[in-house]
Amino acid sequence: MAGTVRNIFEAEAIALMREALELLDSGGGSDAAATLQHAIDIAESQPPMREGDRLDPETMTRILGPLDLAPMGHHLAAYPAKDWRTQGAPVADRGDWIHH
């Protein structure tokens, strides 16, 4: 029973921390917001991301909370980076630059 009560209080505390995080983000408190996000990650026992990890929608939901409450935009899409250069566009041959 005590463990359940602790989990309920901890979940409520994390929910309040998320609300505070939203207020800090909207107010431009980036340093405080980053610190609070770190505290949320610790409270939720989030494993740190490593180079090459991909952020999928399930992971985003676990980290950010419900996405319907998060700001929406193309920058939140969980897709790999694209090469925006036009396919077939001429590219200078740089192999002989050492000779100039």
For this entry, give a set of tags.
100 residues; mainly alpha; 3 helices; elongated
What does the model show?
The longest helix is centred in the N-terminal third of the chain and has 26 residues, at 2-27. This protein has a domain at 1-47 and 59-64. Helix 1 packs antiparallel against helix 2. 48% of the residues lie in helices and 0% in strands. By secondary structure, the chain is mainly α.
What structural class results from the helix and strand content?
A: mainly alpha
Q: Return the average pLDDT rounded to an integer.
A: 72
- What's the total helix number? 3
H/E topology pattern: HHH
> How much helicity do the residues have?
40-55%
> Major sheet, described briefly?
none
Report the principal-axis shape.
Answer: elongated
What's the gyration radius in Å? 21 Å
Per DSSP E runs of 2 or more residues, the count of β-strands stands at: 0
How do you describe this structure in short?
The protein has helices spanning 2-27, 30-43, 57-64. Helix content is 48%, strand content 0%. The chain has a domain at 1-47 and 59-64.
Which secondary structure elements does this structure contain, and how are they paired or packed?
Blueprint: H1 2-27, H2 30-43, H3 57-64
Helix pairs in contact: 1-2
